[in-house]
Amino acid sequence: MSDIQRLIIGVYFTLTMFYVVSVNLFPGDVLVRLTGWVTVLTIFIAALSIEKKCLEQKVLTVAAFFMVIGDFFLGLGERIGILKSWDVPLGMFGFMISYIFLIIAFQKNFSIKGKNLWAILPIAVVFITIFFNLAEFVKGPMFVAALVFGLVLCYMCWTALCSLFRGYFSKKAAWLIAISGCLIFISDMGVAHAVFNPLFKGQFVPWLKVYIWITFVPAWTLILATVTEENLKVQ
Hints:
Blueprint: H1 3-25, H2 30-49, H3 55-76, H4 87-106, H5 115-118, H6 120-134, H7 141-162, H8 171-196, H9 206-228
Helix pairs in contact: 1-2, 1-9, 2-3, 2-9, 3-4, 3-9, 4-7, 6-7, 6-8, 7-8, 8-9
């Protein structure tokens, strides 16, 4: 790890723990939600300000921008009257565009052979299980939107994980990419329950919010670390 990467991880680990404490002390407080969104906004600002050596790092910065847009709608949209009924669709759209840019950045030396093929299995098992558990609660166009979003998410996670096997990124960068992709996938499984599961939908559930946050922010912290990586590709 370079000094800047250690600094990034240290700063966002501290901010993550601050948010976790705040969520439990002030559950549902709009200021806590705003603080969370400002935290992810700084990830994009940091990525934007860093000098980039590779095209992939520029694409990751674009992905971070759409992540911030998606998080704004999902985290704060319901507090804005005219957006209240559109917070989930707009949030999903923002994140889906973000994941498409992650796929563009991660998908190098494409292959579906060997370990690449086996990497599909755990992602598919988890996604199919959660999808069918929640499918009865998702109706109409939202069902189609959730399915398309889920497939893009799964493909992004698979592509990130396969970075370990495809020999394009350096070993360090590949691990950063693979872990970040898996953490985003894990986080979004929690978001799916928060948005669609009637046990949690429309409620502020501190433990679920903490689960999402301690996977979501570290994931994008590692993506920010990837943007700073000087040896991104195999030499």
